[in-house]
Amino acid sequence: MDVVSDAISTVRIGRPSSQRVRVKGTWCTRLDAYDGAGFHVVLEGSCWLLADGGGAPLSLEAGDAVLLPYGTGHVIADRPAGAREVERAVPFGEWDGVQAAANVRGQVVGAGAGDGAVVEMLCGKYRLDRSRVHPLLAELPQVVHLPSRVGARPELRSAIDLLGRELGEQRPGAGIAVTGLLDLLLVYMIRSWVAEGGTGTWPAVLGDPVASAALRALHADPAAPWSNERLAAQAGVSRPTLARRFTSLVGRPPMAYLTWWRLNLAAAALREGEDPLATVARRVGYGSPYALSHAFSREFGTTPGRYRAQARPEAGPETVAGEPGPGVGARAGAGAGVGAGAGVGAGAGVGS
C-alpha cells in the first residue's frame, strides 16, 4: 500500500453511491452537507457550483470533475446562483419529483422549467469516518476543481468514461463494476490534486525523495520491526538526515508517525472486522493485545473493545476477545513507550 491508498482506505466506510443526471432548462438544486465526500463530473454542457460558506460560484464545463472532500453543502444550477436562487433551490432528492433514493444508479432527471441547453452529470457520495483522518486528506481544500484539459489526467478520464457507461447501460455485473470505478475515481481525483501542485504540506512530503521513501516503507509493512536506523537505510540516507527531513516535513519523527499510523490501522480493523484483539495486534506490529490496548487507550482515550462497540453498536458487549481487563493494560504497556532510536519489534511500542 502507499500513503494515498492507505489514507483513503482507513476512513472509507460502506459503499459509495452515484447516479447519472440529465437536465435542461432553468434549474437550481441543493445538496445538503453530509458526513462524507461528494463529487460531480460534467459529461455534457455546463453548470455552476456554489459551496456553502461564501466564495464565488465555480464554473464547470464538459469534462470537469469536482470533489467536495468534506461533504460541504452546495448548490448546482444552470447559471450563477444569487441569494434568491440559493434560498429557493430544490433539494436534490426531490428535484423534478425524484425521491431521495440517492443510491439509485442511472437515474435520469427530466427537464427543468423552460428550454435550454442539456446538462448531463455524474453525481455521487462516499461515506467516510472523519474521527481519524490522515493529514493528507485533512489538507484538501473545501472544493477540489479538476478542469478538463486535452491530454491531461488520462487515467481519470478513462475512469469517468467507464463509470458513465456503467451507470447509463445497466449491464450485468454493474454493481461490482460501479463500486470499483467509484473507488478509482476518488483515488484519481486526490492523486491529480497532489500531482498538480496542491497547496499544503503533504504534496511537498510526497514529492520529497527521502520522506516519501520512508513513508512508502512504513506503509508497505507497518508491522515490521522498524527502527530509525533500519528506516534510514531503506531511504538511503543517514539517521540524522532522515530524522531532520522527515520531522520537518511530516511534523513528527518517523517512529512517532509509525505509532500513530499503527493505531489508526488498528482502529480501522476494529471498526470494520471481527478479528480478536490479539490478531489485530499482530497485524499492526504489537506483540501482545496488552501492549496494543495500552497504546490504543492512550491515543484514543478508550479501550479497543469500547471503541468497537461505539463504532458498531450492533457488535454487542463492550469487549474484544483477548482485551486485557481493568488495570492490566497499564502493566503491559511498560514496554510500549517511545524512545528516540528504539527499535519497533514484536511486543514493542514505537519511540518518539
Write a structural description.
- The protein is of the alpha+beta class and 352 residues long.
- Helices cover 41% and strands 17% of the residues.
- The protein contains 14 helices and ten strands.
- The strands form two sheets. It has a five-stranded antiparallel beta sheet with strand order 1-9-3-6-10, covered by helices on one side. Strands 5-4-7-2-8 form a five-stranded mixed beta sheet, with no helix packed on it.
- Helix 8 (228-235) packs across helix 9.
- Mean pLDDT is 81; it is low at 96-111, 315-321 and 325-352.
The main β sheet shows up as: 5 strands, antiparallel
Give the neighbour order of strands across the main sheet. 1-9-3-6-10
Helix content: 40-55%
Structural class: alpha+beta
Radius of gyration: 23 Å
Which word captures the global form? globular
Mean pLDDT: 81
**Binned strand content:** 15-25%
Task: Briefly say what this structure is.
By secondary structure, this protein is of the alpha+beta class. The chain is 41% helix and 17% strand. The protein has helices at 3-9, 83-87, 135-138, 154-169, 174-195, 201-207, 209-220, 228-235, 239-250, 254-272, 277-284, 289-300, 304-311, 328-332; strands spanning 17-26, 28-31, 36-44, 46-51, 58-61, 65-68, 74-77, 90-91, 113-127, 144-146.
